[in-house]
Design brief:
The chain has helices spanning about 5-15, 20-25, 30-45, 60-80, 100-110, 125-130, 145-155, 225-235, 250, 285-300; strands spanning about 50, 55, 90-95, 120-125, 135-145, 160-170, 170-175, 185, 195-200, 220-225, 240-245, 255-260, 270-280. By secondary structure, the protein is α/β, with parallel strands linked by helices. The strands form four sheets. Strands 4-3-5-13-6 form a five-stranded mixed beta sheet, sandwiched between helices. Helix 1 crosses helix 2 (about 20-25) and helix 1 (about 5-15) packs across helix 4 (about 60-80).
Amino acid sequence: MTLQQLHYAITISEAGSLNKAAEVLYVAQPSLTSSMQELEQELGITIFHRSGRGVSLTSEGLEFITYARQVYHQYEMLMSKYGKAGTRKKKFGVSTQHYSFAVKSFVEMVRQFDTQEYEFAIRETKTKDVITSKSEIGILYLDSFNRKAIEKILRTNDLVFHGLIECAAYVYLWKEHPLARYPSIHFHDLADYPCLSFEQGAGGSFYFAEEVLSTGEYPRTIKATDRATMLNLMIGLNGYTLCSGIICEELNGTDFVAVPFEPDEPDTECRMEIGYIVKKNLLLSGMGELYIREIGRYLGQYTGRKEN
């Protein structure tokens, strides 16, 4: 039994005549008759009762056509979505730690496409979920503390990290924070204020932390799950977080500042490398390549800035 035979049988049942069905299908009547005989022989039933006035469905044929319509309708739906002239949207997704520049670059990339033809997704999420996501691209950072552990996890998941930018640590806080106008901030300056960090969920280790220097002794800590809450806590509680200093004012607003972090111990390593992860040997889609170019363009304004 073939889809073509199902189509023939359905058309004959609707036309009520082999001649009329042959005209609709642009098929010679003998070929149509032969195809139906082969189908009836294969199924072991009589689908059509033939007479001088045309054809009609037998009781077995009526039941068969009911199922045939369902099957052929599903086939037509598949073809309308996945066939050459289908309406299936091309998909592109990004999973990222909580970086406003990643969202900004995503916005600039999407603006260059017709969203009626494409299905886009960006997911600001936990570090573990960035690694295990089905997105084409993931955005995260490595430093001297988490690099070996994260790279091992990436290899296990057949992923490769590509660096985009290296940067020193900054303290991110509300512009009216008592420390906001300091030229640089030391760790001891922060003792009276809550350190804010993104929650990594049950089983989340220090290696999954999104904030550099995550192993430091912070006497006051508060966890948040999203960027909007983090910003509210900065205003309401004079909280702070340690970050790359790469801030998108267009998305986060102008009420926050990034102040260079100065470690108390001169040999403390507090640099981070932000990059993207993709499947090993994966060729990026056109959208993926454009997204990486947009990120590179945005990060370019921070390349070569004066660091601590």
